[in-house]
Design a protein that fits this description.
Elements (H helix, E strand, L loop, with lengths): L1 E2 L6 E2 L19 H28 L3 H7 L9 H14 L10 H5 L5 H15 L3 H18 L2 H14 L7 H34 L8 H24 L3 H34 L1
Antiparallel strand pairs: 1-2
Helix pairs in contact: 2-8, 3-6, 3-8, 5-10, 6-10, 7-8, 7-10, 8-9, 9-10
């Protein structure tokens, strides 16, 4: 019988039957073992991470279906994959669509009056000028807008649960699909598309101003809608008409949530941190 170094309980074999820790030996103190563990991490990370990226890019919905069915060893954990993509975007934000300047909210037709009142209140409470507030807002919102991206998974889970409530899927299934969809949302629209536009602009010497925000938004909407249609068909196996209609409804809801709800949440949270 061995005594577990982690939980101090006795066990037999190479792994503790209580906490799962590997049997500790003198080999675990060797330098070779350190490099062995590092190599294992790198090969496992690269293998599962890039397999997952490849799957969500070229086979919409497949990762969610297989992960929910119990096929998990070959995939990076969906939630971890989502946050890894967020970190990649955070390190090199080429497109600032996830983050808006403070003045955007003042001029908004929907909640502009509420935003102005909130800004005036913050200026009074913090004893700062509007210009200083704008500067500090810009600095803080860059990070907070990325951290708050998890709310997309929550909102998408709700939308999927409502659209497909008759299928009686586990909530877990909706969460995993919502995670995959929002991973591709960030990866495609905020990382790969801007890179592609930069590449095309460099090769053909096209000015960035030629491609308007409206055109980029339209292309993004079509691409996201197409992805959702294929993913929904793979996951829920409904008719093409139902799939297209529900995908369109989901994409519209997701877009409205992004434009009005998510950005306003970022605005309020950022003001709170100033």
């Amino acid at each position: 019988m061995e005594l577990c170094k982690n939980c101090s309980k006795q066990f037999e074999g190479n792994f503790c039957s209580f906490c799962g820790q590997k049997k500790y030996t003198d080999k675990d103190k060797s330098l070779a073992h350190i490099f062995e563990e590092a190599l294992h991490f790198l090969t496992h990370f690269e293998g599962s991470f890039f397999t997952s990226i490849k799957t969500i890019l070229f086979y919409p919905g497949k990762l969610a279906v297989e992960y929910c069915a119990g096929i998990r060893k070959k995939y990076y954990k969906p939630i971890s994959l989502f946050f890894m993509v967020v970190i990649i975007y955070l390190l090199n934000p080429m497109y600032s669509g996830l983050n808006q300047e403070c003045r955007y909210f003042k001029d908004n037709n929907v909640y502009g009056s509420m935003a102005k009142a909130a800004i005036l209140k913050k200026m009074a409470n913090a004893s700062i000028t509007e210009n200083d507030l704008m500067v500090e807002y810009g600095q803080k919102s860059k990070s907070l807008s990325k951290v708050l991206l998890f709310v997309f998974i929550l909102s998408s889970t709700v939308f999927l649960s409502l659209l497909y409530y008759k299928q009686h899927k586990w909530l877990f299934d909706h969460v995993i699909l919502a995670t995959e969809i929002n991973t591709i949302f960030i990866l495609l629209i905020f990382i790969l598309f801007p890179l592609l536009m930069l590449l095309i602009g460099t090769i053909f010497r096209i000015d960035e101003d030629v491609i308007s925000d409206e055109f980029f938004a339209l292309i993004s909407f079509i691409a996201f809608f197409t992805y959702n249609s294929i993913a929904f068909k793979t996951m829920f196996k409904e008719s093409k008409i139902k799939t297209i209609l529900k995908s369109l409804a989901f994409t519209i809801l997701h877009t409205l949530f992004f434009i009005f709800v998510y950005r306003f949440i970022v605005f309020k949270v950022t003001l709170w941190f100033i």
